[in-house]
Amino acid sequence: xxxxxxxxxxxxxxxxxxxxxxxxxxxxxxxxxxxxxxxxxxxxxxxxxxxxxxxxxxxxxxxxxxxxxxxxxxxxxxxxxxxxxxxxxxxxxxxxxxxxxxxxxxxxxxxxxxxxxxxxxxxxxxxxxxxxxxxxxxxxxxxxxxxxxxxxxxxxxxxxxxxxxxxxxxxxxxxxxxxxxxxxxxxxxxxxxxxxxxxxxxxxxxxxxxxxxxxxxxxxxxxxxxxxxxxxxxxxxxxxxxxxxxxxxxxxxxxxxxxxxxxxxxxxxxxxxxxxxxxxxxxxxxxxxxxxxxxxxxxxxxxxxxxxxxxxxxxxxxxxxxxxxxxxxxxxxxxxxxxxxxxxxxxxxxxxxxxxxxxxxxxxxxxxxxxxxxxxxxxxxxxxxxxxxxxxxxx
Length: 395
Known about the structure:
Blueprint (H helix, E strand, L loop, with lengths): L3 H8 L11 E5 L2 E4 L4 E4 L2 H4 L8 H11 L12 H12 L5 E5 L2 H19 L6 E5 L8 H5 L4 H4 L9 E4 L4 H7 L4 E6 L2 E2 L5 E2 L2 H14 L2 E5 L23 E4 L10 E5 L1 H4 L15 H14 L2 H19 L6 E7 L2 E6 L4 H9 L2 E2 L1 E2 L4 E4 L7 H20 L1
Parallel strand pairs: 3-15, 5-6, 5-7, 7-10, 10-11
Antiparallel strand pairs: 1-2, 2-3, 4-12, 8-9, 11-12, 13-14, 14-17, 16-17
Helix pairs in contact: 3-11, 4-11, 12-14, 13-14
């Protein structure tokens, strides 16, 4: 196993700065490396492993389905495909679901659906899209154009035209950009990569009203914030504002790759066979796993647990008396710790203390633990994080 990092460097395109160990096993809240060292996981695969590692029910569903039927493509009906679509619609605002393989693909689909809707319901020139500072919608070509990050965009320009950015949570600035030429407004109810910033309910309400006024579609990106992460099944439920389209991925597949674009019948009516598609989308194995995850995370008892554990985690973080901590913010188990230092050394020191941690930009420590976390795990995190911050202060 010790040659794995070298083999990765030799054969895998270098697009990630990986940790200096090889993970070989996971169970619940912990993962284990090839030397037998265990790490408490507060990343959960970037908000993917909502039910922790190697959940028995997910594993059983995968094994049962793969022994029956693993892939046929979307030219044919399968029960897992239909069952998951029904569950997504009955637990959300949506009437229809388009399945794909990732969050980026879900955003690409939303862009296409919005532009076809505008062309069909209004006019071909209604193609502009409004997004917001701090946004992250993905790295594929269209999604990247909606991602307000200079370092991500600069090497790949020219990008898809027609996108403008307003400051996040700035109602007046949004009103100046949303107009007759706008086909869609894309926004994250809670920004993840942007630093765990929560959209003000009044801001989302203003976007809803502006979209209605100009015949634009309101698109919520819940790829990271959805699936129970914030204590509601969908993060926009905190504000009581309903979108026309919503993108979902990450936690939906229980660790397997899947994305979904949820939409109303009004929008779905403009799409016809052949307008969009995907060979691997709605794979029956992944759909069966996703059905397990969605059923479990939508359980009111689970959502109450997330809310309670999020409150407990934020309260314990407030007890850390490090001078470097400026703010603790978030909803449920999507938490950002704003610091006045570069948090990369905190993440790296975390490895020494048996912690998997994540940043959101240079100065925000982002905590995205599995939703099955218990108070004992929080206590372990706080003790280890306190030691890390003490060591950094001493250095």
